[in-house]
Write a structure and sequence with these properties.
mainly beta; Ubiquitin-like (UB roll); 1 helix; about 35% strand; elongated
Length: about 70
Amino acid sequence: MNKKNKIKIVVNGKVLIVNLKFSLKNLIEKLKAPTNKIAIELNEEIVDKKKLNKIFLKNKDKIEIVHFIGGG
């Protein structure tokens, strides 16, 4: 593994190592999270899901993904 091409991010408190130029959309696809049932926070800012493919992750980014669960 070439460390120059990798970055370290934190997703819901867990450290992940991903490639440089890894977008938020790539992350959601990797985690198999349904975009219509989640909210995403990047470094304490809510992310507009329409911009997922334009947001590229940087070293030490902190991502929180919250799943919505229906109930009554």
